[in-house]
Amino acid sequence: MSAVRQAVSRPKHSGGSVARIKASPSSEPQASADIDAPGAQVLERGHRVRLADQVYGQIFEQIVSGGLNVGDKLPSENEISERFGVSRPVVREALLRLRADGLITAHQGLGTFVSHQPAPRLKTFNDVQNVSAYLRAQEVRVALEGDAARLAALRRTDEQLKKIADAHAAFADGLARGEVSPEADLAFHASIAEASGNDFYLGVLESIHESINGFMRLTLSLTRTGSRQRAQRVADEHATILDAIREQDSERARVAMQFHLGQARHRLVDRERD
């Protein structure tokens, strides 16, 4: 039995030069910060992680560690391409992902600058290099789980509602004790997918389970070591989803799930959301 289906069946109870952007668009050219983490120029060919994800991970790690800070200018595509020994399309894809995730901003005629910085303690976790893949999976989850929550509100049985409520209670209890696990979080989300009445939702979650689990490990680790308010916000978001499904308000359930998944993403990439 897959980890996703198991979660449904057994929910747990429980350094370079700093260059700042100037206000005027006619600012003088700025010096670019270095991407100089140990081993940053060595990417693993043939590795199961895509080259663009590896470039993303190296730059992301520099932003987390403070090698690149908010306002720092990134090297040009050509410079990054030479440093990593990859093609410009690979670099462009990595930068587009970093922009989509709100970490960098491009200013025409000036260059690309760091715009947000994740919580510094993120650098203590082992799988920071995989963040790009985790966030791509999160995009799938927003569309998939939002609609699954909508259908769950329309189709759920009393037994399925109880399973969702029990999974939420177990998750919230663990969160309050600082012992919440990815399995408890997954149990809540998987029970909603099951209640949609469409096995394809569970099937897709199973296909990206590794990335979902990795994302949950990172975000829940940040939540455990973050503020009490951060933990409470996560629990409140789950409760809002549960309430909408209980009241069979399908549109509110969809919006609440998509909001929750979007906030989870923001909490990972922006330390101001801590």
Work out the number of β strands: 2
Quote the average pLDDT.
83
Spatially, the strands of the biggest sheet line up as 1-2
Distance between the termini: 36 Å
Question: What is the overall number of helices?
Answer: 11
Q: Percent helix among the residues?
A: 55-70%
Spell out the helices and strands N to C.
Answer: HHHHEEHHHHHHH
- Radius of gyration, Cα only, in angstroms? 20 Å
What summary fits the major beta sheet?
Answer: 2 strands, antiparallel
Looking at the structure, what is the overall shape?
A: elongated
Helix and strand content put the structural class at mainly alpha
Task: Report the portion of residues in β strands.
Answer: under 5%
Model regions low in confidence, pLDDT < 50 over at least 5 residues: 11-29
